[in-house]
Amino acid sequence: MIELLSTVVDGIIYSSWLFIVAVGLTLIYGVMKILNIAHGSLYALGAYMAASLAGYWLAHGYPPLGSYGMLALSAVLVGLVMGPLIERGLLRFMYGKDEVVLLLATYSVFLILEDAIKLIWGVDSLSIAEPYGMLGSVDFAGLTYPVYSVLLLAISAVVGVALAWVLQRTRQGKLLIAVIHDSEMSAVMGIRVPRFYLVTFTVGAMLAAVGGAFTAPMVSVVPGMGVEVIVLAFAVAVIGGLGSLKGAALGALMVGLVRSAAVHFLPQVELFSIYLVMVLVLLFRPKGLFSSAEARKI
Amino acid sequence: MKRIDRTLLVLILPLAILMAAGPFLPQWVLFLVTLSIGKGFVVLGLMLLLRTGLVSFGQGLFYCLGAYAAGALGKVLGISDVFLLLVSGAAAAALLAYILGFLVAQYRDIFFAMLSMAFSMILYGLLVKTAALGSSDGFNVPVPTLFGAKLVEASTRYMVFAVACAATILVALGVHWYQKTTLGSLSPAIKDNELRVEYMGASVRHAIHVKFVIAAALAGLGGALTGMTVGHIDPEMAYWTTSGEFVFVTILSGTGSVVAPFLGSLIFETIRSYAYEYSPNTWQMVLGASMLLVIVFLPLGMWSIFTARRKRA
Predict the structure, then answer these.
(1) Which residues contact A190 (CB under 8 A, 6 or more apart)?
(2) A143-146 and A137-140 beta bridge pairing
(3) In the prediction, which pLDDT does A154 show?
(4) Domain residue ranges in chain A
(5) Residue A138 — left, alpha, or beta (φ > 0 → left; ψ -120 to 50 → alpha)?
(6) For residue B147, is pLDDT > 80?
(7) Is the pLDDT score of B234 beyond 60?
(8) Is the backbone of residue A60 left (phi > 0), alpha (psi -120 to 50) or beta?
(9) Per DSSP, what are the bridge partners of residue A242?
(10) Angle between the A225-240 and A245-265 helix axes, to the nearest 10 degrees?
(11) Taking residues A18-33, what's their average pLDDT?
(12) What is the CB neighbour count within 10 angstroms for residue B237?
């Protein structure tokens, strides 16, 4: 019984992490129809920036609680710098080309950023464990969990609710939905489509960096840490239906629970349990759980 | 007609010369060319898919499977005949592709790309956990023999090299022939407009399924050859970054000719062997930047430099 409960709790914690990591990818795809492979590098950049900034903060003896602010700040910085740089500097010249061409373009950006990280921070691993350990742990149903996991849970909830609120309740969000449905018509009606693309990509990049920045305290920050994340994020996003916010949440929950079940009961399949879920879902719903029907083009 | 045959000649002549000159060439040249041919097979398969408008980010699946099939055959059954190993690598990959094809052939664009990537990651996960096959360390491939005869080390390298050259000629002729068949020539049509192809009575799904199997067989062949050449195989061959590298070479080479993948692969391997030694930390950056340049300025790949000049003349 306790095994089952801990499986569920572990699964939910892992799900919240997955959601943070995947939601930026699905947002960018939903609006711009770009599958951003550089998402993984932005995640890694967030982690490196967090390790540097929070490390600097703590090394100078400032109040340790401020290190959480540093984690958030580094995510914002990475998003604000890299988002516009990639979107304005490269992707905007490629709108209208095949989705595959854009996929290859972001793959090139991924390759460039992977080495840029090595050039800036070197190849040795960094660590910034203080924010993780500082919060201590909490007992729940007879098992001990780090409070930091609760923080992750809170962040993913805040991110999800905030995105849903902006999309459904604000004027800008409604305009964005118009852009998603028909960007040409929106432009004709006076919506500044390029600006929406810029903001979307920047927010997406920021979300990737948030994922990295708040993962940094839990792992050691090493070159190549973003490589796996892109495949994971894609699996989560595609299970729910690429471009769907609800889908990313449900996908994260499914993948999180299945992986946690695999870790507890069948550790041999842990590494690929996620892809197995993805293949199974796609067998029955070829475009993911929350996908809308697409008109055939002649 | 005549022009296309000349393109093939461009491939066959140098290979024939290389085969004849092989015994006098230094070992590292033989190694480099054989390795390039191995990877060239994979790229040739990707080129077939790219002509159809499909990019696979999971060709490492078949590349790795081919290598492991050949390696396991040698390790478990003690078979080391060079032809048997190559054929078994290609056959294993083709068989898996035939099964997966029923699912994958329904998808296009990024879904095709990422689904194939997911499959390759499944194989990676399986191999890393399989202690019998060396887990993440992989294992050594037995030294290949020719019709049961074990050769001394120097001539083994030449033997594999000669077999690789001969295989390249056969495969290039085969693919060239395939592209002229009805099924093969559907590629650009499917890329342009699938629905019209369907209206004309051809099954797009079937055509893509066949191409997927051919591409996989080529990748398996390439994997088996590479495993034999390097002498060691590990699960990294199925990791998606390996597949990404193949995509890179495919984009670089372009879809202009069956020769392009082998030439592109040779250039890539040559540059890599130097670049990786001198600047390991900027190597990917160079790759990324040159891929961007090719996408923007040479959308049809490097091969289009040659064809463009010919058209102008």
Answers:
(1) none
(2) antiparallel
(3) 92
(4) 2-284
(5) beta
(6) no
(7) yes
(8) alpha
(9) none
(10) 120
(11) 90
(12) 26
Inter-chain CB proximity A231 and B126 less than 8 Å: no
Residues A114-124 have pLDDT tens digits of 889 989 988 88
Residue of A nearest to B108 (CA): A100
pTM: 0.86
Question: In terms of Cα–Cα distance, which of A154, A137, A155 is closest to A146?
Answer: A137
Q: Which of A119, A268, A297 sits opposite B282 (nearest CB)?
A: A119
- Between CA B14 and CA A169 the distance in angstroms is 67
**A266 Rama class: left (phi>0) / alpha (psi -120 to 50) / beta:** beta
Q: pLDDT tens digit string along A4-14?
A: 888 888 899 99
Closest to B250 in 3D by CA, of B211, B215, B226: B215
Beta carbons of A282 and B195 less than 8 Å apart: no
Structurally, at CATH architecture level, domain A2-284 sits in: Orthogonal Bundle (1.10)
Distance from CA of B237 to the nearest CA of A (A): 15
**Residue B107: phi, psi to the nearest 5?**
-105, 155
* ipTM value: 0.81
Q: Kindly give, in sequence order, each residue whose CB lies less than 8 Å from that of residue B269, ignoring residues fewer than 6 positions away.
A: B32, B35, B36, B39
Give the span between the Cα atoms of B287 and B299, in whole angstroms.
16
Question: Residue A160 corresponds to which tokens in the numbers above?
Answer: 């999800």
Instruction: Give the strand pairing for B232-233 and B139-140.
Output: antiparallel
